[in-house]
Amino acid sequence: MERLQKVLAHAGVASRRKSEELISKGHVRVNGTVVKEMGVLVGNSDLIEVDGVPIYREEPVYFLLNKPRNMITAVSDDKDRPVVTDLFPNIEQRIYPVGRLDYDTTGALILTNDGELSQLLMHPKHQIDKTYVAKVKGMIDRKSLNRLEKGVVVEGKKTAPAKAKILSADRSRDISMVELTIHEGRNRQVKNMFQAIGHPVEKLKRESYGTLTLDGLQPGEWRELKTFEIYQLRNAATQNDTTN
User: Fold this and answer.
1) How buried is 92 (Cβ within 10 angstroms: 0-12 exposed, 13-18 middle, 19+ buried)?
2) Which GO terms describe its cellular component (predicted)?
3) Which of 21, 133, 154, 166 could be joined to 192 by an S-S link, Cβ 3.0–4.6 Å?
4) Three-state SS annotation for the chain
5) Which residues of the chain have pLDDT under 70?
6) Right CATH for 2-54 from 3.30.1370.10, 1.20.120.80, 3.40.640.10, 3.10.290.10
7) Alpha-carbon distance values, 37 to 19, 33, 151, 199, 226 (Å)
């Protein structure tokens, strides 16, 4: 579900602010009923009309990107840095990243114009596994991994249980490679978790998002999601609803 004014803006009716004016002045109907309140949520099956004319809603599209380093997870940047949507120059739909990866973090990132799915995937109550591979400073041990798995305190709040394993360790370079699977999505969470156990992250890549992996995708490359993959994402989010 998305806010009505956002749907109008995405459909090209008007800017978000102008769409709010249209709503407040009674120009918009949802399923035949005039709506004047802000914040009304609408879904894909709702009929939306502006002055009696049904609005065109973009066909939903879904992409998996292998995000490269040094790119902003956004649709624009006030410092004119490259953003992930720059990699989709020929896509007509207005797509948005689902969640974010840091500027220097690489890996699996979903982009779509399906706001309903985006909210479903990002909502804290829906537990979608995300697996990262981190190059961290120092020789990490099983005791440290246990702390990650049981949860560590980050910004005053304990993280949820995770899965962790050591992939390799290089004593001469004093670095370890660790795989970490979490289902939360707090800002800079993986980096903060490793910082909390005294092993700062030097390099980070998200290897998978739910059942989606980067197989066959080089940094900067993307592909469309298959129908069954979209179904798997929706199903995983609803099955893992922690409020049930």
Assistant:
1) exposed
2) cytosol
3) 154
4) CEEHHHHHHHCCCCCHHHHHHHHHCCCEEECCEECCCCCCEECCCCCEEECCEECCCCCCCEEEEEECCCCECCCCCCCCCCEHHHHCCCCCCCCEECCCCCCCCEEEEEEECCHHHHHHHHCCCECCCEEEEEEEECCCCHHHHHHHHHCCEECCEECCCCEEEEEEEECCCCEEEEEEEECCCCCCHHHHHHHHCCCCEEEEEEEEECCEECCCCCCCCEEECCHHHHHHHHHHHHHCECCC
5) 124, 240-244
6) 3.10.290.10
7) 12, 12, 42, 50, 37
4, 48 contact by CB (below 8 A): yes
pLDDT in tens, 29-76: 999 999 999 989 998 788 999 999 888 777 889 999 999 999 999 998
Q: Contact 50/57 with Cβ under 8 angstroms?
A: no
Q: How far apart are CA 216 and CA 66, in angstroms?
A: 10
Q: How many CB atoms lie within 10 A of CB 6?
A: 15
Place of tokens 């410092």: 79
Q: Residue 86 and residue 242: Cα distance in Å, rounded?
A: 35
pTM for this entry: 0.80
Q: Which residues are catalytic?
A: 102
